[in-house]
Specification:
4 strands; alpha+beta; 168 residues; 4-stranded antiparallel beta sheet; NADH Oxidase
Length: 168
Amino acid sequence: MDFADVVQTRRSVRAYRTDPVPDAALGRVLEAARLAPSACNKQPWHLYVVRVEATRLALFPHERHTWAAEAPVVLVACSLPDDAWVRAWDAKNHADVDLAIFTEHLVLAATAEGLGSCWICAFDPAVVRAALQLPAAHVPVAMTPLGYPVATPDPRPRKALEEIVTWR
């Protein structure tokens, strides 16, 4: 699949088959994330690969996200704000920006592998911290289930370029 196809076909998947994710495919997804750019190449991130069912369920204790725990893998992306580049003019810490780039590399690579994913930021960080026994420096920012989709969701509407781009 070429890059344009990956971008066109990426969807937020909310129903997964129970088939395991092959180690080789998971490795390629993780490698794509590892290669993501970051401000001043600080790479202020850490990823948790959760395959154990009990731990996946502990990450999503509320009914709202039980579908996510049903995927064979859940990836938990944590930022490391103390390791991130900070812009001198306004003290803007770029840990979350860098983590977003890292995570997008990950979900695009998953799409290229035929895997589904879904960015999840609506979670209780304290629950995630407890379930994974995170070090204090690891801040959970985003999670995604990872697995083969039950079905391919329809595309969601997107704004026209004219609405989001200004030419000067």
